[in-house]
Amino acid sequence: MTLLVTGGANGIGAAIVERARGAGEQVFSLDLENGVDAADPVAVRTFLDDIPTPTRVAHIAGAVGRGGIDEVGLEEWERVIRANLTSAYSVMHEVVPRMAAAGGGSVVLMSSLNARDGGTTMSGVAYAAAKAGVLGLMRHLAVEWGPRNIRVNGIAPGPVRTRIHDRLDDEQRARILAKMPYARVAEPEEIADMILFLLSDVCASVTGTTFDVNGGSHLN
């Protein structure tokens, strides 16, 4: 099996790369920090042309914002939408037909609790909208490409100990935890393990589903 991880240089993406390589899997990391923009279809196409067709894809690439609708200008809105939703489109546009032609595969798209509960100004209106869009894209792909032997699922984490979480101050972190029925900050490796589980044949009949890994916050 061949695994493609977008956003594989840091945080959850890096944990996925480490876990999968540790299990002996062939892993390719597509990351802006390594010179490949996941939101650029040409860059993604060029990258994919140089590797074997992936059988599994974890799309983790993204960026957080901040601010409400009265604070966020169009430039910031488009930056966050591009980093999260356009990148998911660009990668899926290039990789899904290849996977189908090669016999199928499995995909997990990174969403967020913000897509489920509307988020806050700490991560911003554009981030909540983009991550909700990712779930819409996921469901569309699951329906349209299921007959071609491709499974697509989403994952919606709550707070995870990454750079996005580290940028918050103590008061902001406390506010997030106060909303959680099971209040804790997840480690990147936990989310990585869940994503690899969803990509595996153990979940061979699972598609079009959002997995909430957020301490029950989606229930509020």
Description:
The protein is globular. A six-stranded parallel beta sheet has the order 2-1-3-4-5-6, sandwiched between helices. It is an alpha/beta fold and 220 residues long. The chain has one domain: Rossmann fold, CATH 3.40.50. The protein is 45% helix and 15% strand.
Q: Any descriptors?
A:
15% strand; Rossmann fold; alpha/beta; globular
At the fourth level of CATH, the homologous superfamily is: NAD(P)-binding Rossmann-like Domain
Radius of gyration: 16 Å
**Tally of helical segments:** 8
β-sheet strand percentage: 5-15%
User: Overall 3D geometry?
Assistant: globular
CATH topology tier name: Rossmann fold
Please report the distance between the alpha carbons of the first and last residues. 39 Å
CATH class call? Alpha Beta
By CATH, the architecture is named 3-Layer(aba) Sandwich
Number of domains: 1
- Strand runs, count: 6
Q: What is the spatial order of strands in the main beta sheet? A: 2-1-3-4-5-6
Helix fraction by DSSP (H/I, runs of at least 4): 40-55%
Mean pLDDT: 91
Following the backbone from N to C, one meets helices and strands in this order, namely EHEHEHEHHEHHHE
**Biggest sheet descriptor:** 6 strands, parallel
Helix-strand makeup class: alpha/beta
Which blocks of ≥5 consecutive residues have pLDDT under 50?
none
Write the layout of secondary structure elements.
Layout lengths: L1 E5 L4 H12 L3 E5 L10 H9 L6 E4 L14 H28 L3 E6 L3 H4 L7 H21 L4 E8 L5 H4 L3 H9 L9 H12 L10 E4 L7
Helix pairs in contact: 1-8, 2-3, 3-5
